[in-house]
Description:
Structural class: alpha/beta
Amino acid sequence: MDNQRHGLFIGIEHSGSDHFFLSLKAIGKLTHQDYQVMVPLLEAAIEGVVQPELYALIDVTELQGWDAEALWDDLKLGVTHGRDFKKIAVVGRSGWQQWMTKVADWFTPIDIEYFYQRQEAVDWLEQPIDGQHTPPN
């Protein structure tokens, strides 16, 4: 039996400057069961939003990886909801996390950046995209 702590935590955060963003924290080695719980919660959060423009902060500082089925779940999630996200800031601690962020940025229409400091990530999320409006509040 695996007693290692793992999972995905989802929240809505307010940055203090009237901007709200989706906050996700990944801990441990993610499993298919983690995605079975998280995906419906994410879909319920954006259900009914016409043309959602989501801004997300993803904390992977405690992420150790995925099992094979969870990695597939993550790819499917990106394909299904990739266009719903406008900007994703990833906060991590390792080179492999930074590399995975770059790969995701190459293969998705989402503006994704990697950061070692959480506040830098939040500051970046608040910046307009190529002269567009600031994140919705």
